[in-house]
């Protein structure tokens, strides 16, 4: 039963990734039909991000009350409804309205699945889980492109992905008994999860630094991915087509890295996987600075992606060990909310820097945030460890 549930979780994470990148691939066709400037995509993404942050912050209390299975099923159903709303939108305001359940659903299912896997499965499954997200995120634009190149409208692409979400939601509702059984075993084992408020979470030793570390990680990932092509074109003088292809190497590095990480995560442990990823990421950023033509950019982006690969899954999986299983679910939702805030705020901040100073600061910007994350993770680990020593003494 438990192995069947794991397969369902993997499929659910593919589904979670499917809608994440389709707005960007569909927007060149959408904004003209909706009669708005191309820049308005930022408004939609902010609405989705705010919904995601809100639902992540409250996911711990929802899961504690209703259970992981029901929260996941309802969240996927909300996402499916939102995608249907996108597909029938005839105005930009309708799109914004449907962006609200889109974000709320995505945040809850992300937090619910991550916390469940962290609490019930080994570290390798967390790495593979996020690898499956990468598969979904890569497949979404492909599905949208499949319809667009065949002269269908973007609406059809959204409808196709929405139908996949409907099928998954139905499957989740039909298998709720598996989730209840798994969570019942955990409760019988003596673990009681707490529903905690934000101020309670912030008072836990090391929590603030770890929340800031999640902010920094997603700031690095989102900024690196969004600005890679622009950095190559505007600073390195690489042609647009090549830059677009090379930018995808960053995401390829993340997806491949998470697949590889699954085979070594249990042996190395979460903390060593985090350190390994940080070291590779820092080296990749430094490679970008080598003045030896375009090859360092090609290599550097792959290395940054490979470095990012194990960090986020390992940080999440380490949460129960770091803060206790009874606190993990509540803390994890807030961690993800901080991660979304970092992904939302920092890429636009670098955009301002690139416009007013110079885009050549791209590697330096990434280096400073990565270095800050390393300091925060290590510092949080020392704080928690010293607290454990005092309690034992």
TrEMBL record:
SUPFAM superfamilies: MFS general substrate transporter (SSF103473)
Bilayer-spanning residue ranges: 34-54, 66-86, 92-116, 128-148, 160-179, 211-234, 246-265, 330-353, 359-377
Keyword terms, alphabetized: Membrane, Transmembrane, Transmembrane helix, Transport
A single MF term (Gene Ontology): transmembrane transporter activity
Segments forming domain Major facilitator superfamily (MFS) profile: 5-389
Membrane topology: Multi-pass membrane protein
UniProt record similarity statement: Belongs to the major facilitator superfamily.
PANTHER family referenced in this protein's UniProt entry, alphabetically: BYPASS OF STOP CODON PROTEIN 6 (PTHR23514)
Protein name per its UniProtKB record: Fucose permease
Protein source organism: Anaerobium acetethylicum
């Amino acid at each position: 039963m438990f192995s069947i549930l794991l397969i369902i979780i993997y499929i659910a994470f593919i589904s979670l990734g499917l809608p994440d990148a389709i707005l960007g691939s569909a927007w060149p066709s959408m904004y003209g039909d909706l009669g708005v400037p191309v820049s308005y995509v930022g408004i939609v993404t902010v609405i989705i991000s705010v919904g995601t942050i809100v639902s992540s912050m409250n996911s711990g209390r929802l899961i504690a009350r209703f259970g992981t299975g029901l929260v996941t099923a309802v969240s996927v159903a909300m996402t499916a409804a939102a995608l249907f709303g996108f597909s029938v939108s005839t105005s930009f305001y309708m799109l914004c309205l449907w962006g609200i359940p889109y974000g709320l659903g995505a945040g809850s299912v992300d937090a619910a699945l991550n916390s469940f896997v962290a609490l019930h499965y080994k570290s390798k499954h967390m790495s593979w889980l996020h690898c499956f997200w990468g598969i979904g995120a890569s497949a979404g634009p492909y599905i949208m492109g499949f319809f667009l190149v065949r002269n269908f409208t973007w609406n059809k692409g959204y409808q196709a992905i929405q139908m996949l979400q409907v099928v998954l939601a139905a499957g989740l509702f039909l298998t709720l008994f598996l989730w209840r059984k798994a969570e019942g075993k955990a409760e019988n084992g003596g673990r009681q999860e707490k529903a905690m408020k934000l101020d309670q979470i912030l008072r836990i030793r090391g929590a603030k630094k770890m929340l800031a570390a999640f902010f920094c990680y997603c700031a690095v990932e989102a900024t690196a991915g969004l600005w890679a092509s622009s950095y190559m074109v505007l600073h390195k003088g690489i042609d647009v087509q090549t830059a677009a292809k090379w930018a995808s190497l960053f995401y390829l590095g993340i997806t491949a890295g998470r697949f590889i990480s699954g085979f070594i995560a249990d042996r190395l442990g979460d903390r060593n996987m985090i350190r390994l990823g940080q070291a590779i990421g820092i080296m990749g950023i430094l490679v970008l600075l080598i003045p030896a033509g375009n090859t360092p950019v090609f290599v550097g982006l792959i290395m940054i992606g490979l470095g990012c690969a194990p960090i986020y899954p390992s940080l999440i999986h380490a949460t129960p060990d770091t803060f206790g299983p009874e606190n993990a679910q509540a803390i994890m939702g807030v961690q993800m909310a901080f991660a979304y805030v970092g992904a939302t705020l920092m890429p636009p901040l670098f955009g301002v820097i690139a416009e007013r100073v110079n885009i050549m600061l791209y590697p330096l910007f990434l280096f400073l945030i990565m270095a800050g994350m390393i300091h925060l993770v290590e510092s949080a680990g020392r704080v928690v460890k010293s607290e454990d020593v005092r309690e034992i003494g």
